[in-house]
């Protein structure tokens, strides 16, 4: 009887150890995925607010190129990963200019592409648009209020401008 | 020392057999895994609002009020599992893993208690136990779902260990199961009736064996009482000595709250009858079915001594009562989420009935088929109910999210979000009509309650409900100024003066820079007058 007991294998101990190690690894991985999902869901909500802002600003000509000036902050809640350090490649589409250090045209193209992927029909600007309308834009850039607050959108003769970075009054 | 080594060796052997059971019964393992995934996958990975989620999300690592309400085991388990910081996907994986282990452990335990019952039947029994619809309201509270599932698994392990003590007189098993029970009692109070059910089921299984001697029975009675008393006293003692008391649980005892004894009796009787007969969305009649089966099977015990039959009948009565212990204590219907023991008691009784009949009539093959069919039918019914509950809950949760987005539009428009300029008060409440209202009637639950319909009728009116709503919106990543007494006073004056129309009317809100007032609708005048 005792001989049989001595022959018991040790693999059950390893099974338990592997399970514990897996849980240790899973915890941060899951937090990363949660934060990524949270930001993506937040973007969907912001996209809806953005559509509402456009409507409130009386913007109807969605075929005009849309310029997003600057970058919003990526919204998270207290339980998400701390994104301020820039350690994690997670950012809101509205924060892309800061996160990827993109110029206005590239950032605007990126944002419009992602908004259109969500089912909206906005027009992305080209580099030529930027050269043509830069002067027109600088006259009309909405000051102080930034998206998602209202009055952060202005429609000019040839383009639509969205202020993402809050500026000093 | 030699005895201790032997006991340790015995324990390791049992642990080995336990793991081997999973490998040797792959169909059982996979069926339980499939049952768990089909039933609770959506619950496990949900990130919807649920009551108190705003606290857990916005204050990472919080112990909330758990220490005050005797749930220090929950706090400890959160630290142990690393779930203290809100991490829904990790929690979800743990919940599914522990539920799977619970199912397998139950099947393993049932196989030990009722050796004549085949694994397919114990597997189906496991499924009926873990998919019982009352668990849905428990898992709705996602922040403790992994810990509850962990507690269920621990309870099964404690029962197994106690069984080894009862059967093999292994005192080390007696000692080891003690801290497990102490921990589970402090994770959630509903584990106490579950443990009682376990003691009685083990006792019933042991006394019904023909070769059990009177001395073993006496030792089991004494051992069970002693074991439970020690676990209960230590668990409650730690709570009383180390943590401040709160009236949260005592306030739920209606016997002492001024209600008449007749009313309390009437409540208890009505609740027990409703649960037994499976009325409402969350209950099935499986316990009634199992009790009848267990008592009928007693007639097959004619070979046993009279005292064993009497003790067996008493155990059956005891097991039947355990799911109602909380109801009896409270004097009224207890929360759906606290009813853990109902399906466990039913399955124990049903398996006992099968074992007893098979013991006397081994050729009664159709009996096995009949029981397997019944269990399968209950499993399918329960899983479909769980899905229905999820669908109805999801409808309300989606509606809440859309409403929050619409409210945010109004609040951004009023310059309220991220600015810290004015405290907010939401007056009234919102509760969406759902396509499922007819089926949900008579089964009120937090699962179907909107975040915009919580605590508005608690005084001061709409203060706590506003905090809930703002907490919910803050958990979405937006910041607001929470109201104080002054905000409430100003806001109630504005509400009275402005006669604001109800949301979503464009004029439903008013911002006077000290208080942002928004009328959600359904607001009686006495709330603000």
General description of the model:
The complex is a heterodimer of chains A (169) and B (529). The radius of gyration of chain A is 24 Å and the shape is elongated. The longest helix of chain A has 46 residues. Chain A has a 3-stranded mixed beta sheet. With 169 residues, chain A is mainly alpha-helical. Chain A has one domain. The N terminus of chain A is likely disordered. Helices cover 49% and strands 7% of the residues of chain A. Chain B is mainly α and 529 residues long. In chain B, helix 10 runs antiparallel to helix 14. The interface between A and B is medium-sized, with 31 and 34 residues.
Quick structural overview:
The complex is a heterodimer of chains A (169) and B (529). Helix content of chain A is 49%, strand content 7%.
Helix residue percentage of chain A: 40-55%
Principal-axes shape call of chain B = elongated
How many structural units, i.e. domains of chain A?
1
The proportion of residues in beta strands of chain A is 5-15%
> What is the typical, i.e. mean, pLDDT of chain A?
88
Specify the oligomeric state. Answer: heterodimer
Comma- or semicolon-separated keywords:
heterodimer, A: 169 residues, mainly alpha, three-stranded mixed β-sheet, 49% helix, elongated, disordered N terminus, B: 529 residues, 2 domains, 3 strands, 3% strand
Write the layout of secondary structure elements.
The complex is a heterodimer of chains A (169) and B (529).
Chain A: H1 2-6, H2 11-56, E1 66-69, H3 96-99, H4 104-117, H5 127-140, E2 153-155, E3 160-163
Parallel strand pairs in A: 1-3
Antiparallel strand pairs in A: 2-3
Chain B: H1 2-24, H2 26-44, H3 53-58, H4 72-81, H5 88-113, H6 119-130, H7 134-140, H8 145-168, H9 171-187, H10 191-207, H11 214-242, H12 261-276, H13 286-298, H14 306-321, H15 325-330, H16 341-360, H17 365-413, E1 423-428, H18 437-440, H19 463-474, H20 485-498, E2 509-511, E3 515-521
């Amino acid at each position: 009887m005792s001989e049989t007991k001595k022959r018991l294998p040790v693999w059950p101990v390893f099974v338990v150890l592997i399970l514990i190690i897996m849980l240790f690894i899973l915890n941060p991985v899951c937090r990363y995925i949660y934060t990524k999902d949270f930001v993506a869901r937040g973007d969907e909500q912001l996209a809806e607010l953005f559509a509402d802002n456009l409507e409130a600003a009386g913007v109807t000509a969605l075929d005009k190129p849309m310029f997003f000036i600057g970058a919003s902050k990526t919204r998270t809640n207290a339980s998400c990963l701390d994104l301020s350090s820039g350690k994690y490649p997670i950012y809101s589409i509205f924060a892309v200019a800061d996160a990827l250090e993109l110029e206005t045209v590239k950032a605007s193209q990126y944002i419009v592409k992602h908004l259109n992927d969500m089912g909206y029909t906005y027009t992305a600007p080209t580099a030529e648009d930027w050269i043509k309308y830069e002067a027109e834009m600088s006259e009309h850039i909405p000051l102080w209020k930034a998206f998602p607050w209202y009055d952060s959108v202005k429609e000019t003769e040839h383009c639509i401008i969205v202020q993402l970075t809050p500026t000093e009054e | 020392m030699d005895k201790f080594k032997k006991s340790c060796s015995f324990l390791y052997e049992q642990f080995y057999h336990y793991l081997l059971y999973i490998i040797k019964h792959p169909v059982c393992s996979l069926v339980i895994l499939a049952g768990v995934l089909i039933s609770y996958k959506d619950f496990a990975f949900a990130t919807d609002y649920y009551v108190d989620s705003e606290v857990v999300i916005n204050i990472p690592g919080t112990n909330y009020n758990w220490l005050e309400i005797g749930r220090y085991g929950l706090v400890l388990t959160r630290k142990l599992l690393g779930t203290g910081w809100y991490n829904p996907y990790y929690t979800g994986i743990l919940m599914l893993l522990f539920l799977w282990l619970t199912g397998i452990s139950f099947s393993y335990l049932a196989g030990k208690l009722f050796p004549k019952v085949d694994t397919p039947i114990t597997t189906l029994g496991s499924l009926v136990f873990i998919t019982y619809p009352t668990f849905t309201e428990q898992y709705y509270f996602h922040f403790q779902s992994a810990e509850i599932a962990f507690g269920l698994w621990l309870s099964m392990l404690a029962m197994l260990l106690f069984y080894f003590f009862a059967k093999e007189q292994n005192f080390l098993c007696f000692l080891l199961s003690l801290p497990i029970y102490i921990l589970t009692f402090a994770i959630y109070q509903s584990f106490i009736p579950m443990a009682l059910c376990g003691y009685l089921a083990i006792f019933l299984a042991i006394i019904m064996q023909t070769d059990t001697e009177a001395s073993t029975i006496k030792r089991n009675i004494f051992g069970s009482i002693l074991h439970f008393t020690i676990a209960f006293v230590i668990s409650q003692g730690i709570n009383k000595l180390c943590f401040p008391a709160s009236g949260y649980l005592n306030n739920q005892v209606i016997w002492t709250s001024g209600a008449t004894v007749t009313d309390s009796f009437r409540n208890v009787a009505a609740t027990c009858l409703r649960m037994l007969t499976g009325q409402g969305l969350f209950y099935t009649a499986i316990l009634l079915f199992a009790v009848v089966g267990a008592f009928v099977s007693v007639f097959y015990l004619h070979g046993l001594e009279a005292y064993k039959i009497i003790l067996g009948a008493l155990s059956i009565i005891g097991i039947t009562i355990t799911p109602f212990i909380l109801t009896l204590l409270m004097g009224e219907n207890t929360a759906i989420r606290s009813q853990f023991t109902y399906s466990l008691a039913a399955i124990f009784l049903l398996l006992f009935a099968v074992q007893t009949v098979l013991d006397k009539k081994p050729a009664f093959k159709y009996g096995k088929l009949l029981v397997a069919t019944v269990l399968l039918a209950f499993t399918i019914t329960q899983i479909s109910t769980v899905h229905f509950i999820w669908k109805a809950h999801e409808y309300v949760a989606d509606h809440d999210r859309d409403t929050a987005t619409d409210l945010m539009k109004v609040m951004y428009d009023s310059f309220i979000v991220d600015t810290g300029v004015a405290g907010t008060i939401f007056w009234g409440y919102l509760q969406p009509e759902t396509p499922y209202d007819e089926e949900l009637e008579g089964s009120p639950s937090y699962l179907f309650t909107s975040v915009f319909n919580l605590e508005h009728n608690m005084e001061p009116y709409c203060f706590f409900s506003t905090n809930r709503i703002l907490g919910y919106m803050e958990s979405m990543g937006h910041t607001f100024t929470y109201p104080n007494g002054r905000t409430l006073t100003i806001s109630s004056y504005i509400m009275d003066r402005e006669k604001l129309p109800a949301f979503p009317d464009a004029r439903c809100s008013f911002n006077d820079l000290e208080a942002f007032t928004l009328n959600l609708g359904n607001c009686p005048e006495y709330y603000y007058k």
